[in-house]
Amino acid sequence: MSDKKSNQMWGGRFDAKPSDIMTQINASIDIDKRLYKQDIAGSKAHAAMLVTQDIIPATDGEKIQNGLDQILVEIKNNGFEFSTALEDIHMNIESRLKDIIGDAAGKLHTARSRNDQVATDFKLWVREACDALTSKIESVQETIEKLVTAHKTTIMPGFTHLQVAQPVTLAMHLDSYWHMLNRDKTRTEHCRWRLNKSPLGAAALSGTGFPIDKKQTADALGFDRPMTNTMDAVSSRDFATEFLFVIAQCGLNLSRLAEEIILWSTPQFGFITLSDEWSTGSSIMPQKKNPDAAELVRAKTGRLNGNLIQLMTVLKALPLTYNKDLQEDKAAVFESFDTIMLCLEATKGMIDTMTVHKDKMLEAAQSGYSTATEIADWLVRELGLPFREAHHITGAIVKIAEEKSCRLDELTLSDMQSVDKRITDNIFNVLSVENALKLRKAI
Ligand code: ARG
């Protein structure tokens, strides 16, 4: 171990140091330094347990605790020098611990391997990320709720095939995003629940002969319980793919809203105007106000989907247990998390500050024969016709409106009766978009 030519953490049986490219491909410190807090927390819990179980002396345990506390401060204050030669966050921290407390540092890794260590750190990180994601989603939901309350009577066209279908309210439209986000939120909570079992104590893959107490470390780190299969503990990353899926799905939902923001803010729709804060200009066309943030939320889906596929591809056909392939699990998760947090924040900002043009929405709702279904329903209700026949008759009425270039409520009774003479004046009650909406009473 004194041979400085080889790696100081695992170089005992090596005569030569790794080639530069080997060091480069092997190192993950640039990415996994983000796990420093979790790594220190995991090590502190492990060291405390080693003392309780009489595996290491209490005096060494205390040195380890103090040294780790000092390292935490150093890293937080940017006073820590990360080394690529030391590969990853685990060995960077342990090596620094040795500088600070000397040989006692070497006892920290008793009954532990980097394999259970990294799985533990990563789970702790994803767990925290789940909590942050949950509250970020909630804050977007709150903004949606505010808009839903304000727009209970703001009438707009509901679309199918992006063609005007039936009148709805802006509240109904936005509330559907609230529900989509609510499922994203509960998916995040379920992901957190499933992952919250501790891998610590699995050691390299088969556990350890030392009399460790896995329950103590699991409790100390806020896990519900230890994982029961040590091989599963070090080799499974489905918690990470699940988290990536949850994020990708949330990103898909946001991309749909983003697309609508983009469409609605065009002069052709004119339903909304984004605030200046959430728009950009064009360097050549002075008249332009572009919805760049919405376009980027729409586009970020590419990364989010890509990251999910990236990690699933790494894991495919990977034999048990730990393989270095697993080191490629973090970049995707970190990037997806940062991206979704940004997208949620941008979505919230855009919708919170947009101006809604109620007149334009109403006008659009009144066009496109959006109450045609009401005519068909009226024929069913009042004349007892089968819906299929009513549908047919209504088609003929729409055709007349098309020929006369007028709205359905602008037709005359004799227009209607030219299609079916049983139609009465009473039909006009259902033709306005307001009345069509009032008829919808089921929850
Ligand atoms: N940096 C490694 C990772 O992220 C830590 C585990 C290394 N384990 C090993 N047996 N080489 O996966």
What structural keywords apply?
Ribonucleotide Reductase Protein R1, domain 1; mainly alpha; Fumarase C, Chain A, domain 2; 6 strands; binds arginine; two-stranded antiparallel ribbon; Fumarase C, Chain B, domain 1; two-stranded parallel sheet; 443 residues; 17 helices
CATH architecture of the largest domain: Up-down Bundle
> Please, what is the average pLDDT?
95
* Tally of distinct domains: 3
Q: Categorize the overall geometry.
A: elongated
CATH topology title of the largest domain: Fumarase C, Chain A, domain 2
E-strand count: 6
Q: In CATH, what is the class of the largest domain? A: Mainly Alpha
* Spatial order of the strands forming the largest sheet: 1-2
Helix/strand-derived category reads: mainly alpha
Give me the CATH superfamily of the largest domain. Fumarase/aspartase (Central domain)
- Low-confidence sequence ranges: none
**Helical stretch tally:** 17
Name every ligand kind in the structure: arginine
Distance between the termini: 72 Å
Beta-strand level of the residues, as a percent range?
A: under 5%
Helix share bin:
55-70%
Largest sheet composition = 2 strands, antiparallel
C-alpha Rg (nearest Å): 31 Å
